[in-house]
Amino acid sequence: MRAAIVNAFGGGFDIEDIDIARPIGREVLVDVKASGLCHSDLHFAVNDFGMAPPMVLGHEVSGIVAAVGPEVSEFTVGDHVVGSLVQFCGACLECLSGRTVSCLRPEATLRADGAPPRLSRRGEPILAAMGTAGFAEQALIHENQLVCIDPAVPFPEASVLGCGTITGAGAVLNAAGVRAGEAVAVIGLGGVGLNVVSGARLVGASRIIGIDLNDEKLELARAFGVTDGINAGEGDVVARVRELTGGGVDHAFEVIGRKETAEQAIAMLRVGGTASLIGIHGAGGMVEFDANGLLREQKKVNGVYMGSANIKHDIPLYASLFLQGRLNLSDLIASEIAIDEINEAYEELGSGRTARTVITRF
Ligand code: APR
Ligand code: ZN
Ligand code: ZN
């Protein structure tokens, strides 16, 4: 099958023919119909986050079940499914407490050491990164990392549910606990940030201030519920937020992964406000804040990972809100491409001009 392989960090993606194994145990073989280009995969393709080439990345996957392993109980051939990089065992203390993103045995969804690899090239093993490896014609995924969804959801929209939406909307609904009537700011209106905006609209935020360097993103964000846009390249962002809200926001979300914008998120809070940090920083990244200011103004800094999602609950919920017309997914999809165009599409993403590009031809 055709797949986009990372053969060296920073070397881009090579389209090659590789082999995929038959499903064993609780594995499901999925015919991939759409695979989203999340910014995190670009980080993983360039820097060492513990996943080593040769590897197949891609963790926003939707498709149709083509075959199931002998122990699979939840899926049958023909089901429409969404995959997610959240690897959870379902039995450890964190899983049983509902914190599946912090599972103590995430390797439970991968093949055991020494077992034949899921992916290989002329006998040489290739890492199926994150247990999803979605940048390929087919993907072999443990059933815990898959969710069945209503076939009425188109595949591109479905793929985004697997990361962008659970991370962005989940940060609002599960992690920050934004209440109706509160004022929200979102810094970084990419594929994840626009879903934070959607979450804020769903819970009834009084004001949703979108902040980005790109005017097209600010315009696009209105279709998700942004009430006020600020171009971060023009003047003092924090002063502008204070002016718009008469003192600051109740919740600020940083969805880029930069020191400067994380510090802005903390600085733009009103008394008692919460800054939720979502964007992934470079290895060893540090953030500074005025300690006395933080305690005097009773601010909170909230680290959010994968929107504290429980995928089996959250993904069907967002799919249903989409089908009811209450969650905008379609405007996230900037373009559909062939897998051969992945390098150009990632260059475009790096420029900050597009929301989500989705591979739909393999
Ligand atoms: N101020 C405001 N906006 C900025 C700035 C800045 N200094 N720098 C970049 N941006 C904007 C870009 O213009 C773009 O719209 O941030 C947005 C980032 O969006 P994407 O590149 O689409 O990234 P996304 O996939 O949304 O992921 C954002 O969340 O999950 C993590 O790893 C992911 O760290 C990444 C972050
Ligand atoms: Zn992602
Ligand atoms: Zn677990």
From TrEMBL:
Gene3D superfamilies: Medium-chain alcohol dehydrogenases, catalytic domain, NAD(P)-binding Rossmann-like Domain. The keyword Oxidoreductase applies. GO terms for molecular function: S-(hydroxymethyl)glutathione dehydrogenase [NAD(P)+] activity; zinc ion binding. Keywords: Metal-binding, NAD, Oxidoreductase, Zinc. GO terms for cellular component: cytosol. GO terms for biological process: formaldehyde catabolic process. SUPFAM superfamilies: GroES-like (SSF50129), NAD(P)-binding Rossmann-fold domains (SSF51735). CDD domains: Zn_ADH_class_III. Its cofactor is Zn(2+). This is Zn-dependent alcohol dehydrogenase. It comes from Microbacterium lushaniae.
